[in-house]
Amino acid sequence: MQRSHRSVTIWEPVRKYLLICVLAYLASSVGYTQAPAGVPARPRLVLVVAIDQMRFDFLDRFEPLYKAGLRQLIDRGGVFTNANYRHASTETGPGHSVLLSGSHPSHSGIVANEWWDPYLNRSINVIDDPTQTTVGGRGRSASPANMLTFTVGDALKATSPRSRVVGVGMKDRSAILMGGRRADGAYWFENDGGNFVTSTYYMNAAPAWLDDWNRSRRVDRFASQSWNRLVDDVALYEKYAGKDAVEGERDRKDITFPHPFVAMPPATEHYVELRRSPFGDEAVLDFALEAMKQHELGKDAETDILAIGFAATDGIGHQWGPDSHEQMDQMLRLDIVLGRLFAQVDATVGLANTVIVLSADHGSRPIVEISQERGVAARRFAPKAIQTAVTSAFAKRYPGVNDLMSYFATDIYLNEDAVRRHKLDIREVERTAIDALLATGAVERVYTHDDLRSTAPSSDPFLELFRNAFFAPRSPHLQLLLKREVYVTSTIGGTGHGSPYEFDRHVPVVFMGPGITAGRYTDASGPEDIAPTVAHLLGLQFPREHDSRVLLEMLNR
Ligand SMILES: [Zn+2]
């Protein structure tokens, strides 16, 4: 009796479990292979294309000129015209961490490209992982370990272990953060040596194809080329992008075409130049197609995900700005690069079996001098002036104390240990710093941990963006909302991003593929909506943020 009883108690849950498995399998296979009429089967491939620093207006401004990949996306895609990041930290790490996780930095912990670690007493890069080593070449030890959330790729692999997820990017943080925790591989480009590499997080040794690829030096084939206008028609560029060679571009010297490479391979400087040249995107495309082939992505009915991060737009944007002939030319060339990518996907997987998503990690601000021409009192502001304002205020208020600031990254990390040691009140220290910051004339507002931890409603439209970007163990003690027209930089030219203003938050979100109705969708949306929407298309359970949504309006009903 005893024996029989025991066997029943063990058997019951197992039986129920098996039953659930069978039902789940049947349910999934029904949705998978025999989708009801009008509902497309799961795609074989989800191709996510992240264009570093691509502003939404790039899609519209040059629209009549696009002929290839961007043309297809505009004509056949669901284009979300009002997609804005819902966080304040518009940097590359946070942006890419959102794209396939849908998580705010407040949940992913990816609050910036780097942050201060008070325990290690040093700054941490977003993908630093000292427990790993680089595979395939030299470079930084990297993994997604700092990302405290999961991606739609992770959810896919949890339910469909044979699905493959691969991230490729010019930048490590792009490939790694989009790849997620369970990626089969993430590959990025290292300037030191000029190789595409990965890390021991993904594999113990480089596969033969990766070594072969790097040995082929395909990436060096651009060195003899000089970047000139794609279309030999200056008037066309003036029509769409205004005048060339605006004061304030780059270093104020290299501001007109052509832009030849100055350094040659294998010099590290050559690869630095490659990153801010359209040829950088071609190098990423070449490699991504090889990775797609080697990982056999889209080959069978189990959905795979390939995320590609193109970064030439960012390199060019930082140097010449969003209104330059260079950036316009980059967009015309990106159109062609994406056309080649989509053609290859069509040939191997079929666009009918592929959902394509295009977005960006952030936008950018206009060059200061261009804003001035438009009547905006824009100006550059030296970071040192902000730092000195605070250290001077501390010296005056707390004579003999000189260790209250741990780290300055325009935002400010205080040294809590020193605050305690000197028996100071941290809120009073913060107040002293805030008064000094506001007195610089560059700072609109300063947020403390108290401000960001609180959930009290506020009429401040920026507070929610900062709260979504706030993760207490990593966030600065003082986060600055700089004045809209102030660009904090120590360079004499070029431009940047990182603010919560709309020029940094407004990016393209485009979906194209089976089940998606082409059109322009104007309701408010954001890149945070991409992951839950992809999950919806794949029939996966997936969380979303309180302020994000599934982009249902583009889905065929
Ligand atoms: Zn970026």
Question: Could you outline the blueprint of secondary structure elements for this entry?
Answer:
Blueprint: H1 2-33, E1 45-51, H2 57-61, H3 69-76, E2 78-80, H4 92-101, H5 105-108, E3 114-117, E4 122-125, E5 134-135, H6 152-159, E6 165-169, H7 172-179, E7 185-190, E8 195-199, H8 208-216, E9 226-227, H9 234-241, E10 259-260, H10 268-275, H11 279-294, E11 304-310, H12 312-320, H13 325-348, E12 354-359, H14 368-373, E13 379-381, H15 383-397, E14 405-409, E15 411-414, H16 416-421, H17 426-439, E16 443-448, H18 449-453, H19 463-468, E17 478-482, E18 486-488, H20 502-505, E19 509-512, E20 519-521, H21 530-538
Parallel strand pairs: 1-11, 1-12, 2-20, 6-7, 6-11, 13-18
Antiparallel strand pairs: 2-19, 3-4, 5-8, 7-8, 9-10, 12-19, 14-15, 16-17
Zinc ion binds next to loops.
- Small molecules bound: zinc ion
Tell me the total number of β-strands.
20
CATH architecture label name of the largest domain = 3-Layer(aba) Sandwich
Euclidean distance between termini CA atoms: 57 Å
Protein model, in words:
Helices cover 38% and strands 15% of the residues. Mean pLDDT is 92; it is low at 1-36. It has 557 residues and is α/β, with parallel strands linked by helices. The N and C termini lie far apart (57 Å). Helix 12 runs antiparallel to helix 13 and helix 15 packs across helix 17 (426-439). Helix 7 links the parallel strand 6 (165-169) and strand 7 (185-190). It is built from 21 helices and 20 strands. It folds into two domains: 45-372 and 502-554, Alkaline Phosphatase, subunit A (3-Layer(aba) Sandwich); 379-484, Gyrase A, domain 2. The longest helix is centred in the N-terminal third of the chain and has 32 residues, at 2-33. A ten-stranded mixed beta sheet has the order 5-8-7-6-11-1-12-19-2-20, with helices on both faces. A two-stranded antiparallel sheet has the order 3-4. It has a two-stranded antiparallel ribbon with strand order 9-10. The site of zinc ion has 6 residues, from loops. Zinc ion is lined by residues 52-53, 92, 314, 361-362.
